[in-house]
């Protein structure tokens, strides 16, 4: 009975992380805005900045991985491998999120010392959608940290207790 | 995977882990120090009044960019964590709470792996924007004017990425020690959690 609720909890967490990562990807891909600035027309796309491209790719990998692990059978020997992959995926998520937040912060506030002007004043809807995508990425990261601790608890602890 | 677990349970595995931790400590500490002391001042000619040029002095410091501040702080934290683990391994071998200690070391190592990878990546992408600029956002590159600042930053980034790889290996070894607890890092022969 305990094992069933454990497995169900793990499945729910992973499905929620899959949804969050997928939401982050979709929100960032569909963010595009055109604004006219006197005679200049500025089109803001997520692919203008390398950090956002990395964010999209990383979260796409994470969502595909979560989807595949959802269907892993209970008694498979691959569960130990899932612990290692969970750690690497958490690293991927946190690095992509922090890179995207670092660059988005420059876009929002600018950098007075380098002479970089903020762009959020001209494309506010783009900025809001990017913020939403970053929040979804943060939710996916938090869920994956819980999943990592959960995987270690369910894969490793039973071994420690059964070994005598 | 099985060979890694086997290596982690032998006495030599402890020395390898200690060596890895010392290397990671040195890498992250040097990254923090090099980026923390990163500063360059240059004087440029910004205009001409008649025949006399007007000069202005500009400084490039790491504090101007929040991502670099996060980089320095995170590297200091990770190197402190490694120092603590080294001290624990050398001096704390006689404690009895082996089950809890192994788990807490593993969890702390995982958290620090994510921290250092986040810091290194944020600084790397900010450095890429500084090096290449961005045509769409009309951000000029700064590396052609502050070459020494950029070079020092690149060196710190390389050290931090070496620290990321080392921390990942250390974390993998520590997690595999959870599966098969070894005897070298604790004088109690069997973990006290086992009934």
UniProtKB/TrEMBL annotation, chain A:
The keyword Acyltransferase appears for this protein: no
InterPro entries: CASP/CASPL (IPR006459), CASP_dom (IPR006702), CASPL (IPR044173)
Pfam families the UniProt entry points to: CASP_dom
Record keywords, A-Z: Cell membrane, Membrane, Transmembrane, Transmembrane helix
Positions of transmembrane segments: 12-31, 51-72, 84-107, 133-156
Domain Casparian strip membrane protein: 7-143
Primary location class: membrane
Membrane topology summary: Multi-pass membrane protein
Subcellular localization(s) per the UniProt record: Cell membrane
CC annotations in GO: plasma membrane
Similarity remark: Belongs to the Casparian strip membrane proteins (CASP) family.
Subunit structure: Homodimer and heterodimers.
Designated name of the protein: CASP-like protein
Organism from which the protein derives: Microthlaspi erraticum
Automatic annotation (TrEMBL), chain B:
Superkingdom of origin organism: Eukaryota
Main location: membrane
Casparian strip membrane protein domain segment(s): 13-166
Membrane topology: Multi-pass membrane protein
Record localization: Cell membrane
Keyword Protein biosynthesis carried by entry: no
UniProt family annotation: Belongs to the Casparian strip membrane proteins (CASP) family.
NCBIfam families, per the entry: A_tha_TIGR01569 (TIGR01569)
Self-association and partners: Homodimer and heterodimers.
Protein name (Swiss-Prot/TrEMBL): CASP-like protein
